[in-house]
Amino acid sequence: MTGVKVLLMMGCPEVPIQTSIALYLSHKLTKLGFDVTVAGTGAATQLLKVSDSDGYYAKKLANLDNTIEDIIEKRADFDICFAFMHNDAGMTYAATMGAISQGKLYSIVFGRNAEALAETIEFDCEKIVAKDVHNPIRLKNKLDKVVEEIVK
User: What distance lies between CA 131 and its chain's CA centroid?
Assistant: First the structure.
């Protein structure tokens, strides 16, 4: 998958599984040859920097607002975007990406209200939904299946 650019979008890191899943997915996709950028809010990227201080799992970190600006200004775009969301703000980021990017959009919806939040999505995307807050295994397994389909 050399040359395929992937964006992982992280909003507020309030729900614990977001950081671990972002690190896992970044590493998995990088090992498969994807060019992965992880963009997040200030707090989300700080958590990644502390958790992965040597940049082993997340090689490229970026500010989410700057990344969106770069896409709007046509300085960058991505072939695939995974948008993490557990609240309305995360959905707004994902909807924005759906409107400004030509890439395939996957909405990773998680947290206590994941199912209800996923039902309110009105933009074109593939939904990956897990009603988990602390244990990342169910979401990891769902993402593994999605990645298998992408690689085929």
Answer: 16
Q: Show pLDDT as tens, one digit a residue, over the chain (152 residues).
A: 678 999 999 998 889 999 999 999 999 999 999 999 999 999 999 999 999 999 999 999 999 999 999 999 999 999 999 999 999 999 999 999 999 999 999 999 999 999 999 999 999 999 999 999 999 999 999 999 999 999 98
Instruction: For strands 35-40 and 80-85, give the pairing.
Output: unpaired
For the record, the structure tokens of 19 come out as 């950081």
Q: Which residues of 55-68 are buried (b: 16+ CB within 10 A; e: fewer)?
A: eebbeebbebeebb
Say which CATH number the domain at 55 has. 3.40.50.10160
Are the beta carbons of 67 and 39 closer than 8 angstroms?
yes
What is the span of the domain harbouring residue 121? 5-151
Number of domains observed in the structure of the chain: 1
Are 90 and 120 in contact by the 8 Å Cβ rule? The answer is: no
Question: Is residue 67 within 8 Å of residue 7, measured between CB atoms?
Answer: yes
